[in-house]
Specification:
955 residues; 51 helices; 66% helix; elongated
């Protein structure tokens, strides 16, 4: 015959609420209905329960039910003792077994008493459903039963249900006691329901329980949670004659709940002065108040007091000291306490792990976990969350997956907090498929879960998936907060979906959710969608603009090609007196680079130095790129060499700088040096290398790097890599090879790839491939005016004027306009703009007169003859010459010779490729005037000096 002890030693049965639910063999209880009931000698059982030995209690109870010695006594007391032990140990399965015996027993006397004990046990074990079923089946209910059920609701975090049951209790006229009021006050505190809490307080006074210490403690806690600390303080002072340690603990806790840590410590000091010996909980509270970094010294003093009082051996106090020291950044002290502990629980290790993560010591957290496991301590839920957070923040995917496997084995994977942290881990490691899998397996998703998964997909640029999840969240009746809106707007920006952005904007306005953060986000979104007008309107509507607001608008202008506007806005920002941060300064550097506004760039660099911003990381990379694009390669190299900790982005920026200036060999040497430093190149690094090879005619080297990228580094080429390779081969007149690469691509060729091939066909007059490339280009991107311009230039170069006219008619039909050739030059700390044959400049007459003098000198001294083949218009020869002489870079050169001192370098930026005749013209000017002329066109840099160009006539 099975016994309770035997049942205890194996897997317990499932939930049992009465005889009808029994699905396992219950030990037969041989109780005679006619036997006289004698009082049981429960002393031994009481002693066992006092020792908190549940297994022994079950064995003792079971021995009373043997066939040889049938029990002839009341079982109520025995059952009650074991149920109380089950409740204190939170042993639900064992409590259910006792419930089954009670339901089957004929010898139970007071069923109301035992039912109350069952409600209490189920409540303590967190099984609300079972507690409710027992409570609902009770034919009679004492105040203790009502209190047990209300207390169960409060303990399980269902304060609203607790208040509802309290109202029903009042309707039935059940007399209240101190326990009832205590539980109801706690429920009011959890709900922050000051009105109901005050009513209960008044009722306590009316019933003569207002001065009861038990009630006063709960009232002080309630008032603190309801932001009525002043009432809690008055209540504390009214209890002047009855202040015990518990009451002092309550007021200290109230101050901590209200965030007044210094006041909490002051009260703790008063308690010590009053001569009261602090309890374990007092020290825990005092240490909680010291968790701010500024209070670390006070925390050490409390630590000393704990040592004197010999409370340091208590596990709860030691755990609190660990938390205090980790919050104050003193990990070493926390570790010393941890290792000195005689006894540790799961919270000890979890607190230590959490401390490592909070202080950014992610690798140390993972090492500590391994040490814990070797010592036989298994990570609990809190430890698993901390370890996953450490793996996520350190980018350690493999370790995170190991912890995930442990969570699966331990049954923790369905825990909501573990699930949310797993979603965050896979999001940070860009494993969106794993992220979705974890999300789908979470049984009861909360709002944070939806926010985390939506944000994870937004951060990984899975924009369509973001919108799908958002719709699912709405179908599940989930709310919408500002964080979720931020993720949705990011998706709108990524998809360039301005219509959805407007819908979200309207939603926010209708619900009055707008704040500074969302305003700044909308500036970013409308800018990302290319709607400068909307972005500018939002920016102007922001009354108290932060540095983020200004930075967002500057970036918006830069990303949409409005570099002049970005610089003007930056100057306005400086006039506001707002402190500039490194991000704001970096946001304007691309505008400086686009305009080649060297002096502005130098000013910003100087400002960065004066403000103490160390040129490391993204700042150094931005400066290298800015100086390179302003034509000062030496400055780029100087910044690069002065940076101590060079990351991959900085090396790539310098390689790209060399390539931009046609120094392909130097770019390759730098790449080899980078490999010596054990840095692994990525897609962008190889893109910079291929670009450098393309602009230096290094065909064989370019082929080798392309193959190494695929085979050695296992990097799948992007469309941009194919574009660079086709450009490299096309420039070197390997057009057939370039065309074969395009045909063999594993992805669909982009417009940029066909554009590179078509440009090469134009240079090398390959009519057959040119027609194929032109047709493909216009099919892929029929709305881009630059594509039509390139196509009709190819036709014009071969004299196919009818085809040119047809292409122009198609442009006209689509209302597409060619971007005019334009140049920028910085003179006198001001950027001057010139368009071909432009006369809008204030010194236009002087400029054209100077240009006439230059041309005459070059024709007379340098044998310059205009090369009209570069004029792709069907006009007279004389008109072609006139058109060449009016090109924008010549106007910029003439103005620079007028307005800058002799010997000063001339730096020009052009939006289109330099034509062959202007290239020859610039070489001659550099020789006969003499000046260094640095021209940045749409393809590369040209440095003209002494009649020679750095490109070697290869561009």
């Amino acid at each position: 015959m099975a016994t309770l002890a035997q049942h205890f030693s194996v897997n317990p049965p499932s939930t049992l609420l009465g005889p009808s639910n029994c699905n396992y063999k219950t030990p037969s209880l041989q109780i005679s209905k006619n036997s006289p009931i004698k009082p049981i000698k429960t002393q031994s059982l009481k002693e066992i329960c006092r020792q908190e030995s549940l297994k022994e209690a079950f064995r003792s109870l079971s021995s009373s039910f043997t066939v040889q010695n049938p029990p002839q006594f009341r079982l109520d007391d025995a059952y009650s003792l074991v149920l109380e032990l089950c409740a204190s140990e939170k042993c639900l399965k064992q409590g259910q077994q006792i419930h089954t015996h009670i339901a089957k027993s004929n010898a139970v006397g007071d069923r109301v008493f035992l039912s109350t004990k069952l409600v209490f046990m189920y409540g303590k074990c967190g099984s609300l459903l079972n507690a409710e079923q027992v409570f609902d089946r009770m034919s009679e209910r004492s105040v203790f039963a009502w209190n047990a059920m209300i207390g169960a609701y409060v303990a399980k975090g269902e304060p609203f249900e607790a208040l509802e049951l309290y109202r029903v209790m009042r309707v039935y006229g059940v007399p209240l006691d101190a326990r009832t009021l205590f539980c109801v006050v706690k429920a009011c505190g959890k709900l922050k329901n000051l009105c109901n809490g005050s009513e209960i307080h008044a009722l306590a006074i009316k019933l003569g329980l207002g001065d009861h210490v038990f009630i006063a403690n709960s009232l002080m806690g309630m008032y603190a949670k309801c932001d009525a600390l002043d009432v809690a303080i008055r209540l504390f002072h009214r209890m002047s004659g009855r202040k015990d340690v518990v009451l002092w603990n309550s007021i200290i806790s109230a101050y901590i709940t209200s965030g007044q840590f210094i006041e909490a410590l002051r009260i703790f000091g008063e308690m010590l002065e009053a001569g009261l010996g602090p309890s374990t909980y007092t020290f825990v509270l005092a240490l909680q108040a010291c968790e701010d970094m500024s209070l670390g010294k006070v925390g050490m003093e409390i630590h000393a007091t704990i040592l004197k009082s010999n409370h340091h051996r208590h596990v709860y106090v030691a755990n609190s000291m660990i938390v205090m020291y980790t919050r104050c950044g003193k990990i070493g002290e926390a570790l010393r306490i941890f290792y000195a502990m005689d006894e540790r629980d799961s919270i000890s290790g979890s607190s230590m792990l959490s401390g490592f993560v909070q202080n950014g010591l992610y690798n140390e957290a993972l090492e500590f976990c391994q040490e814990m496991q070797e010592a036989g301590l298994k990570p609990d839920q809190g430890s698993v969350v901390s370890l996953l957070a450490a793996s996520a923040r350190s980018g350690n995917l493999m370790c995170g997956m190991e912890i995930h496997a442990y969570a699966l084995k331990s049954g923790l994977d369905t825990d909501l907090q573990v699930g949310n942290t797993l979603i965050d881990l896979y999001s940070k490691c860009s494993k969106t498929n794993y992220m979705d899998s974890v999300f789908q397996k979470i049984p009861k998703k909360d709002f944070i879960c939806w926010i985390t998964v939506i944000a994870g997909h937004a951060q990984n640029n899975c924009h369509l998936r973001v919108l799908e999840l958002f719709r699912e969240a709405q179908l599940e009746k989930e709310g919408v907060d500002k964080l979720m809106i931020g993720s949705i707007l990011r998706a709108c920006s990524g998809l360039k979906c301005i219509s959805l952005a407007k819908e979200i904007h309207g939603y926010i306005l209708r619900r009055q959710l707008s704040d500074l953060v969302l305003h700044n986000t909308f500036v970013d979104v409308y800018g990302g969608c290319g709607n400068i007008h909307y972005a500018s309107r939002i920016f102007k509507l922001i009354e108290a603009k932060s540095i983020v607001s200004w930075t967002s608008m500057i970036s918006c202008y830069v990303n949409n090609g409005f570099s002049n506007e970005a610089l003007d806005l930056f100057l306005s920002l400086k006039e506001t007196g707002i402190d500039l941060d490194s991000i704001a300064l970096m946001s304007v550097l691309p505008a400086v680079a686009n305009l080649s506004a060297l002096w502005k760039g130098k000013e910003i660099h100087g400002f960065l130095i004066r403000k103490g911003f160390i040129p490391e990381g993204s700042i150094a990379s931005s400066l290298v790129d800015m100086y390179a694009r302003c034509g000062i390669l030496d400055n780029s190299l100087r910044v690069f060499n002065c940076t101590r900790d060079k990351d991959l982005v900085l090396w790539t920026s310098m390689i790209n700088a060399y390539g931009m200036h046609g120094h392909g060999k130097a770019a390759i040497d730098l790449f080899k040096q980078m490999k010596v430093e054990n840095l692994v190149p990525d897609h962008v690094t190889f893109l910079a290398l291929l670009y450098a090879c393309s602009h230096s005619g290094l065909v064989d080297e370019g082929r080798k790097f392309y193959e190494a990228m695929k085979n050695e580094y296992q990097l799948e080429p992007w469309p941009e890599h194919y574009t660079s390779l086709v450009d490299l081969l096309g420039r070197a007149n390997h057009l057939e090879e370039a065309f074969q690469i395009v045909e063999r691509m594993h992805i669909e060729p982009t417009a940029e790839i066909w554009r590179a091939l078509l440009g090469a066909c134009r240079v090398h007059f390959n009519k057959k491939l040119g027609e194929i490339a032109a047709q493909k280009l216009l099919e892929l991107d029929p709305e881009s005016p630059r594509n039509y311009v390139l196509v009709y230039n190819v036709f014009a170069a071969t004299g196919r004027w009818d085809d040119v006219a047809e292409v122009r008619m198609r442009m006209k039909g689509k209302q597409l306009k060619k971007d005019p050739a334009c140049c920028w030059i910085e003179v006198g700390n001001q950027v001057h703009t010139f368009i071909a044959r432009d006369r809008s400049h204030p010194q236009s007459d002087e400029i054209y007169e100077k240009l006439r003098e230059i041309i005459e000198l070059l024709e007379r001294e340098g044998g310059y003859v205009a090369q009209t083949k570069f004029v792709l218009h069907n006009v007279e020869e004389k008109e072609k010459v006139k058109m060449l002489h009016g090109h924008s870079e010549r106007l910029a050169i003439a103005y620079a010779l007028l307005g800058t001192p002799e010997g000063t370098p001339i730096r020009i930026t052009k939006n289109l490729r330099v034509c062959g005749d202007c290239h020859t013209f610039s070489k001659l000017v550099s020789k006969f005037f003499p000046r260094v002329i640095i021209v940045r066109d749409a393809n590369r840099f040209h440095r003209f000096e002494g009649g020679i160009c750095s490109c070697g006539d290869f561009w």
